[in-house]
Design a protein that fits this description.
Rossmann fold; Arc Repressor Mutant, subunit A; 325 residues; two-stranded parallel ribbon; 12 strands; alpha/beta; six-stranded mixed β-sheet
């Protein structure tokens, strides 16, 4: 779904339900709302404007009602304390927003509100892994994937427990405006720039591995040598580990086997180069270690969804200027 705009910016509306979780609502507010000059505007609304109880924090004072959804380009429903359906007014407002074409997003237990509105019927969805069975039991029309960090079903997106909402929020920026802007925002928020949706939400993932940890060095070394034809054995030697230990550590740290992590890193670099440089497709392929231009185009389209040229035309501002000049 393309980016829609309201008043020049993409309008994000966050629905604060009673006993909304403090971190769940804080994520979209920080990512989309605290961004001077950014491409998003943000409104918080609730069913009955006024004071809204917040679990894990002070009471919220919310001025806008559900009519704010009428101008929403993206609606985000953060998690709340109990996995129960919200009121009929809330579910009706969510369904109406979806019917108007708004993108609908949930964080954690917010998936229960989307399911109650019928927006997850026939779709894959996720929520906090502890409540996945409850979601599947209450809404059998939904295909619940308990291990996923987030799931993008086009117009409707869901994320797993708590901080997975940050991964999904960065994914939205990446989808709307490309990898470069998403990575810039991630660095400002001191967040991992790209954990893929398929990564297990309950994996034991260190935020920042210890500087003395062997794999930390090999990650940095690999990122500096993406142009070379790297192998698992090379990475193991660089880390001073056995092949088996290295593979196990990559799974623990990244949720990916080493070669898949390398592919993700190469595609991420390719996206940034396509956005920020005038390098030819051949030069980008060489710089990223993705083989021949034909191989690069095939891999890029398979994993990103569009050919490199289309991606560049969408996200490279210089290309936009050339095309319009």
């Amino acid at each position: 779904m393309g980016v829609q705009t309201t008043g020049g910016n993409h309008h994000v509306v966050v629905v604060a339900l009673e006993n909304v979780l403090a971190l769940d609502i804080g994520i979209p507010l920080q990512v989309f709302g605290s961004w001077p000059g950014g491409p998003y505007s943000l409104t918080v609304c609730t069913e009955r404007p006024g004071l809204v109880p917040m679990h894990g924090g002070p009471v919220l004072s919310v001025a806008d009602g559900l009519d704010a959804l009428e101008t929403a380009d993206t609606v985000i429903v953060p998690g709340y304390l109990e996995p129960v359906p919200p009121s009929a007014a809330v579910t009706a407002a969510l369904a109406e927003a979806a019917a108007r074409g708004s993108r609908i997003v949930s964080i954690c237990l917010g998936a229960f509100a989307l399911a109650a509105a019928g927006l997850l019927d026939g779709r894959r969805a996720t929520t906090h892994w502890q409540y996945a069975a409850a979601l599947a039991g209450q809404y059998p029309q939904v295909t619940v994937e308990p291990a996923e960090l987030y799931i993008d079903e086009g117009q409707v997106l869901t994320s797993g427990g708590v901080t997975a909402g940050l991964d999904l929020s960065l994914h939205l920026i990446r989808r709307d405006h490309g990898a470069r802007l998403a990575n810039q925002r991630a660095r400002l928020l001191v967040a991992a720039p790209h954990r893929t949706g398929g990564q297990a939400q309950f994996a034991d993932l260190p935020v920042t591995p210890s500087a003395s940890d062997g794999p930390t060095t090999v990650y940095e070394w690999a990122l500096d040598h993406l142009h070379q034809p790297l192998t698992v054995d090379q990475l193991a030697r660089q880390a001073g580990m056995s092949r088996r230990t290295l593979i196990r550590r990559f799974h623990t740290d990244t949720g990916r086997p080493p070669m898949r992590w390398l592919l993700d890193a190469r595609l991420g670099l390719a996206r940034e180069l396509l956005e920020a440089s005038d390098l030819t497709v051949e030069a980008v392929a060489r710089r990223c270690g993705l083989g021949t231009p034909a191989n690069f185009r095939t891999l890029f389209k398979a994993h990103v969804g569009v050919p490199p040229r289309t991606y560049r035309e969408t996200f490279n501002s210089a290309a936009h200027r050339r095309d319009s000049g």
